[in-house]
Amino acid sequence: PEPVLQIEDLSISFALAGTDVDVVRDLAVSVEKGRTLAVVGESGSGKTITGRSIMRLLPPAASARGSIRVAGREILTADEKTLRRIRGADVAMVFQDSLSALSPYLSIGAQIVQAVRLHDPSVSRRTALARAVEMLDRVGIPNPADSARRYPHEFSGGMRQRAVIAMALVNRPALLIADEPTTALDVTVQAQILALLRSLQDEYGMAMLLISHDFGVVASAADDVLVLYAGREAEYGSLRDIFEHPAHPYTAGLRAATPRLDAEGERARLRAIPGVPTSLRDAGPGCSFAPRCAFAAQLGGRCETELPLPTLRGSDDAGAVHRAACHLDRLPELQEAAR
Ligand code: SF4
User: Fold this and answer.
1) Helix or strand or coil: residue 329?
2) What keywords appear on the UniProt entry (predicted)?
3) What are 236-277's pLDDT values in tens digits?
4) Which of 44, 237, 238, 290 could bridge 303 with an S-S bond, Cβ 3.0-4.6 Å?
């Protein structure tokens, strides 16, 4: 079957002072039903703009080229009417900031009713409210019928994010884009929300694109991982390949910089990757990670002059593809190198 999300040759550029500057280049990735792809990278890596391009919610100065297909429909060339249908029925999005996703002037129940009826105006208010209450119950909000009458500010951050998830999923989208869905929450609530998303995904079979800067979140929620650096794919693979056999020095650095959630003592060794992120705008002809890469010096200038393209690093027992965009065939003992 066709993947729920299929991105091919996606590039996104911004018009800045008369010139087009690429912020995303040549992305190609797909997500199947029931799977979670995490898109991970630092701020400025292009992960959020990629998520927004799937809903075609780009700022006016930005434009996207290539192809994004959701449930078989092309997003980038769709007309407004088709887009509205896709946004309501096929794709939904959950953001970090639950307050801005909700109107302060309407009860939670009224907002979910609106979402239902926007998607299908033939549903009566009463039926829509019944579905809203059922959905609030499903996402773990206590006293759902009462809670439906409450306003966003009456909820805690965690409960509000549950309500946003209820609203996003009430029309059973084929794809959920979750952009830093737990970043604003404390660690315990984070884990609860990730577990909730996982159980809803199992129940509805939706595909999920999880956008995160946090490797710890990725480790607990993803099936597959796309690592972005300066707008390009640095590495793609199964969660296991990415964590156990990273092939790109940047991925290895991210992993080394991730505190283990289970061992408090590990936090003391938390170490950022040295250097500042490069944007595509400043990137030369070679690898944009070169100024921060501990291995660039070993490759005799090749990293600075020749762009590394994603190449196959093998596939695991289940046939999952593993690609990395690096001139090194094998990453030397990177754990040691990173310490
Ligand atoms: Fe480092 Fe060179 Fe690989 Fe880029 S291509 S990640 S600079 S070794």
Assistant:
1) coil
2) ATP-binding, Cell membrane, Membrane, Nucleotide-binding, Transport
3) 999 999 998 999 999 998 888 776 544 444 443 344 566 666
4) 290
Neighbours of 281 (CB within 10 A): 14
Regarding the beta carbon of 308 and ligand 1, being less than 6 Å apart is answered yes
Q: Phi and psi of 144, rounded to 5°?
A: -60, -35
* Residues 284-334: tens digit of each pLDDT: 789 999 999 989 998 889 999 999 999 999 766 677 899 999 999 888 765
Q: Rounded to 5, what percent of the chain is helix, strand, coil?
A: 40, 25, 40
Mutual angle of helices 125-138 and 157-169, in 10-degree steps: 130
Beta carbon of 37 within 6 Å of any ligand 1 atom: no
Predicted TM-score (pTM) of this structure: 0.91
Q: Is the ipTM of this structure higher than 0.85?
A: yes
299 lines ligand 1 (CB under 6 A): yes
Please tell me the number of Cα atoms within 13 Å of 287 on its side-chain side. 27
Please tell me what DSSP assigns to residue 238: E
Measuring CA to CA, which residue among 191, 184, 114 is closest to residue 156?
Answer: 184
pLDDT at residue 7 tops 80: yes
Report how far apart, in Å, the C-alpha atoms of 183 and of each of 18, 94, 193 are.
Answer: 35, 12, 11
